[in-house]
Amino acid sequence: MLGLGCAPRVVDRLRTYVDEIMLFNPAYGLVSVCGMDELVTRHILDCAGGASVIAGCLGADSRVADLGSGAGLPGVVLAILMPDVHFVLIERMKRRVDFLNNVVARCALDNVEIVQEDISRTDDAFGCITMRAFHPVGDIIRDVSRLLAPCGRVCAYKAQKSYVEKEMEGVDGWQSRLVPLSIPFLEEERTMLVLSRIGDPL
């Protein structure tokens, strides 16, 4: 499914992650779901659906930053599926950081680093930046530009193509392409917005 490997260790880690979300969600308000099936379809599979696009955008600097990681969506899912890639989950809320630290330990993810900080105060550079259910691109493009390494790419999980096109209006100095995502059991339109600075590889 999704063209991803289904090694037992990957399945076990994803199952553990889902169990942790279901356990902590009532108290922490991590995601809006009605049950485990909806969680798997609307969040886990949705995040997994962009993994191949992100993998194809990695260059020499293969560190990936997940901005506003929240419950670890997509960062934790991607880290489980891509164990050779280093992920930095940036989240400002302490209770969500506490949850992420627990998940990283429970899933034994040695390719994940968690940073409790607002992105406006983060001082680092990454070859790839991803985000999901975060701010509109135009609202954070200055911080994104500051955090993106030279020749880096942004891979933002989005919904309908028409909404993405509207969101990009007035965002200057960047080039973009839209990649449709096919998510099993999910009928809603999903799109990956890939961005790079004009003149850099897209």
Quick one: how many beta strands?
A: 7
Give the class from helix and strand content and strand pairing.
Answer: alpha/beta
Strand content: 15-25%
C-alpha termini separation: 27 Å
The sequence of SSEs as H and E is HHHEHEHEEHEHEE
Profile the largest sheet.
7 strands, mixed
The amount of helix comes to: 25-40%
What's the tally of helices?
A: 7
Poorly predicted regions: none
Strand order of the largest sheet: 3-2-1-4-5-7-6
- The dominant shape is globular
Q: Would you tell me the overall average pLDDT?
A: 94
CA-atom Rg in angstroms: 16 Å
Write out key terms for the chains shown.
single chain; 202 residues; alpha/beta; 7 helices; 7 strands; 24% strand
Write the layout of secondary structure elements.
Blueprint lengths: L7 H21 L7 H13 L2 H7 L6 E4 L7 H7 L5 E5 L2 H13 L5 E5 L9 E7 L4 H11 E11 L2 H7 L6 E8 L8 E8 L5
Parallel strand pairs: 1-2, 1-4, 2-3, 4-5
Antiparallel strand pairs: 5-7, 6-7
Your description of this structure?
This protein has helices at residues 8-28, 36-48, 51-57, 75-81, 94-106, 137-147, 161-167, and strands spanning 64-67, 87-91, 112-116, 126-132, 148-158, 174-181, 190-197. With 202 residues, it is an alpha/beta fold. Helices cover 39% and strands 24% of the residues. A seven-stranded mixed sheet has the order 3-2-1-4-5-7-6. Strand 2, helix 5 and strand 3 (112-116) form a beta-alpha-beta unit. It is globular.
Give a short synopsis of this structure:
The protein is an alpha/beta fold and 202 residues long. 39% of the residues lie in helices and 24% in strands. The mean pLDDT is 94.
